[in-house]
Amino acid sequence: MSNITVAGTGYVGLVTGVCLAEVGHQVTCVDNNDEKINLLRQGISPIYEPGLDELIVKNTENGKLDFTTDYQSVYAHSDVIFIGVGTPENEDGSANLNYVFTVAKEIAESVEQDCLVVVKSTVPIGTNDRVEAYIKAHLKHNVKIEVASNPEFLAQGTAVRDTLYASRIVIGTESDEAKQILMDVYEPFKLPILAMNRRSAEMVKYASNDFLALKISFINDIANLCEKVGANIEDVTNGMSYDERIGNRFLNPGIGYGGSCFPKDTKALHWLAEEEGYILRTVKAAIDVNEKQKYALIKKARNDFPTFNEKKVAVLGLTFKPGTDDLREAPSIPNIRLLLNEGAHIQAFDPVGIENYKKLFPDQISYKHSIEEALEDAELCFIFTEWPEIKEMDLGLFKEKMKTPYIYDGRNCFSLYEIQNKGVNYHSIGRPSVIEYGVLDEVQA
Ligand code: UDX
């Protein structure tokens, strides 16, 4: 088994390192953040990811996994170094490669033996070539270095499973030797390995993410039209999904995609295409639809509440999706900003996202630790994330707890059948509204 180092202990780096140790490799994870490394050494993951802590503890105890800030000594004697650092978005939409090149510099200055550098971070097409040239130009010792591309397809909340049981492993190399090293590293996973050149591998990652983003924006577009023409998006997607060419996944309408990948990777590929003098019209459409979709719920609520000033607003769900405490590009954020700017009083519940939300909105929101408390006396309620606790909540609570039960559900958490006869006004995405508040009371009276 190879002696492997992973640079970066964010989602990609940490999960990669832990899973490589789990299949039997000797792995050291490197990060320049002391606090993170100290936590990891105690078996505590700095990110919320189901199943990760257990694997960290197990593999640290059995001596397969180690954490350090001392990159020099580990880079010096690694067979393979994975780069799994972040590539955030620049203001113009392009990918910021500062972290990648910082690690490349540290590698160049430290390696003392032949080594394969594997870029796992999502990087624009051609970056691997640049990283290789950069390292070679800055090497301190006379060693042989090659760079390979090995994009990552894990989703937050299911990252460990997505890595250990990945749909495929894509490796992009420019030599048979590099290809063989990566084939050996991944052999214990017993998964399909697709080998290609570096630029194709870099492109697989962007094309996959942008296609999924496009799928979501397409279905959001169709959902919005369903509302206008009296169709129900649930029946429509169900009807579409029986065609195997379409499938039944990533067709859930909502208030747009968030997270650390789709928003960034759509913009980065569009930007890159423009640099090449080509306009990626489909990707641009996905970006535009998503930007507008974020406000789909507010638009519906406006019909009932011309102003949110002084309104008591319940918010259920803050994170960009369930199963994570990550708030990057969470659609809840621009909505909450808008509500606060208009003078609304917000009572918010999220099972794991509150601590991170407090960093963004320390005092302006009243954070609640239960759905009941968030609904108490509220005049309207927005649902931004489909957490299981929200999907499975007692629907009688809306009428029982709220002052006026107006519900705007951005993730279609409840079936229309279930929400009927609950005495609420319920608006979701791409489905007919249920209007019972007031109406039902009159009938009953
Ligand atoms: C995504 C990709 O799934 C993963 O393969 C890639 O490596 C990284 O980006 P992630 O961002 O963690 O993973 O979450 P994902 O589950 O894909 O959801 C992204 C966003 O799309 C969320 O905001 C989610 O709510 C939204 N979404 C997803 C929809 O609106 N509808 C859907 O049908 C699916």
| Count of distinct structural domains | 3
**Small molecules bound:** uridine-5'-diphosphate-xylopyranose
User: How much of the residues is beta strand, in percent?
Assistant: 5-15%
Number of strands: 15
Catalytic activity: UDP-alpha-D-glucose + 2 NAD(+) + H2O = UDP-alpha-D-glucuronate + 2 NADH + 3 H(+)
EC number: 1.1.1.22
Keywords: NAD, Oxidoreductase
Domain UDP-glucose/GDP-mannose dehydrogenase C-terminal: 314-416
Task: Report a brief summary of the structure.
The protein folds into three domains: 3-196, Rossmann fold (3-Layer(aba) Sandwich), CATH 3.40.50; 205-293, N-(1-d-carboxylethyl)-l-norvaline Dehydrogenase, domain 2, CATH 1.10.1040; 296-444, NAD(P)-binding Rossmann-like Domain (Rossmann fold, 3-Layer(aba) Sandwich), CATH 3.40.50.720. Helices cover 44% and strands 14% of the residues. It has helices spanning 11-22, 34-41, 52-61, 71-76, 98-110, 127-138, 159-164, 176-186, 198-229, 233-241, 262-275, 281-293, 296-304, 332-341, 354-360, 371-375, 388-391, 396-401, 416-419, 439-444, and strands at 3-7, 26-30, 65-68, 80-83, 115-119, 145-149, 169-172, 193-196, 312-316, 345-349, 365-368, 380-383, 406-409, 425-427, 434-435.
Overview of this structure, please?
This protein has 3 domains: 194 residues, Rossmann fold (3-Layer(aba) Sandwich); 89 residues, Orthogonal Bundle (N-(1-d-carboxylethyl)-l-norvaline Dehydrogenase, domain 2), CATH 1.10.1040; 149 residues, 3-Layer(aba) Sandwich (Rossmann fold). By secondary structure, it is of the alpha/beta class. It is elongated. The model has no long low-confidence stretch (mean pLDDT 95). The protein is 44% helix and 14% strand. The protein is built from 20 helices and 15 strands. It starts with a strand and ends with a helix. Strands 11-10-9-12-13-14-15 form a 7-stranded mixed beta sheet. It binds uridine-5'-diphosphate-xylopyranose. The site of uridine-5'-diphosphate-xylopyranose has 19 residues, from helix 9. Uridine-5'-diphosphate-xylopyranose binds next to helix 9. Keywords: NAD, Oxidoreductase. InterPro entries: 6-PGluconate_DH-like_C_sf, NAD(P)-bd_dom_sf, UDP-Glc/GDP-Man, UDP-Glc/GDP-Man_DH_C, UDP-Glc/GDP-Man_DH_C_sf, UDP-Glc/GDP-Man_DH_dimer, UDP-Glc/GDP-Man_DH_N, UDPglc_DH_bac. This is UDP-glucose 6-dehydrogenase. Belongs to the UDP-glucose/GDP-mannose dehydrogenase family.
